[in-house]
Design a protein that fits this description.
The protein is of the alpha/beta class. The protein is built from eleven helices and 13 strands.
């Protein structure tokens, strides 16, 4: 006879409005397999990222011979990125995928990714992200909070997109209200460029653009058609100020329910899903751009970012001279040398 044990998180079942949350362990008779169902919650995402998270689940089940299954709670059903981090921290869910910027308030190490023009190129970005010497300490920097980073997903470059015209130089941002992620470093960046930073969640951006609460925002191309922002903001300017990765995190307590083989399978599946996502993301960006042009008439323009780099130089000075970030900053910069 089956015995089902529900490992509920600190937030409780009623808070989430679910019939149980956290991992579910089903212990069967001796001649049957014990199976574990782990919860993966995430906010709204581009299709290649969603596909990669689903690939993670498929690989976990395959590598564990069906003894570990992933149950998904997509599209912000359980809240925005900060809420999802807190749910993972408490054990109410087992996995989530969020922007590295959302993790800044949990570990300062992640704020390094919000430094504009930290990476000289896309190749430099991937070289750093695949460097275990650099990334392992960052992933493990939240262990005392109850969760750990597993892997990263490419989130592309981030550039400004505006309602009333393109951005060519930092002077075009003067007096403009620009939405940024809830990141102290991103706020400083926009202020150094002459704009007025308005931190807010991604779910508020469309209506804020539509109501002129903000004049523009910054993100990758997927906000234009997938999120519909191109219906309001039709000017996308490639200043390419940051490359902020997405990070998959896992609640540490669930490891107590896993065998060594199951735990290893999860790590392997996470890394393999990254390889899948990078290839899918690159192809999907081309399609997103073409669709945004066709559907909304979005205009794209290249930017000479020399003046942008000069304007944000104080942020680089701040990080490279900070005793906390000095080593990490130089490690990353040296990878691009």
């Amino acid at each position: 006879m089956k015995k089902v044990i529900f490992l509920a998180g600190m937030f409780g079942l009623s808070l989430l409005g679910l019939n149980g949350c956290g991992s579910t362990v089903t212990v069967t008779s001796a001649d049957e397999k014990e199976t574990i169902s782990l919860r993966f919650a995430y906010a709204s995402n581009s299709q290649p990222v969603i596909d990669a998270m689903n690939e993670f689940g498929r690989l976990v089940e395959e590598k564990t011979d069906g003894t570990v299954k992933i149950q998904y709670f997509p599209d912000g059903q359980l809240g925005g990125e900060r809420e999802l981090i807190e749910l993972t921290q408490s054990g109410a869910v087992d996995f989530t995928k969020v922007s590295a910027s959302a993790l800044e308030s949990f570990s300062k190490d992640y704020s390094i990714f919000s430094v504009p023009y930290l990476f000289e190129s896309e190749a430099h970005f991937f070289y750093v992200m695949d460097n275990e010497e650099i990334m392992t300490p960052i992933y493990q920097s939240t262990m005392d909070l109850g969760f750990t980073g597993l892997t990263y997903y490419d989130s592309g470059q981030r550039s400004f997109y505006m309602v009333d015209g393109p951005i060519q130089t930092p002077s075009d941002l003067i007096g403009k209200k620009i939405r940024v992620m809830q990141s102290e470093t991103a706020i400083k960046m926009v202020e150094l460029l002459g704009g007025s930073a308005v931190p807010m969640g991604s779910d508020e951006v469309y209506t804020s653009l539509q109501s002129n609460l903000i004049n523009g925002s910054e993100n990758n191309e997927f906000v234009l058609h997938t999120a519909g922002h191109g219906g309001v903001a039709k000017y996308y300017s490639y200043d390419e100020h940051t490359r902020v990765p997405d990070i998959m995190i896992m609640n540490d307590a669930i490891k107590e329910q896993l065998t060594e083989k199951q735990e290893m399978a999860i790590y392997e599946a996470a890394k393999e899903s990254t390889v899948f996502e990078i290839e899918a993301f690159a192809e999907a960006v081309k399609e997103e751009k073409a669709t945004a042009q066709e559907t909304y008439g979005v205009k794209f323009n290249k930017v000479d970012n020399t003046l942008f780099r000069e304007a944000v130089a104080p942020l680089h000075d701040e990080f490279k001279n900070d005793p906390v970030f000095q080593k990490l900053y130089h490690q990353i910069q040296n990878q691009g040398a």
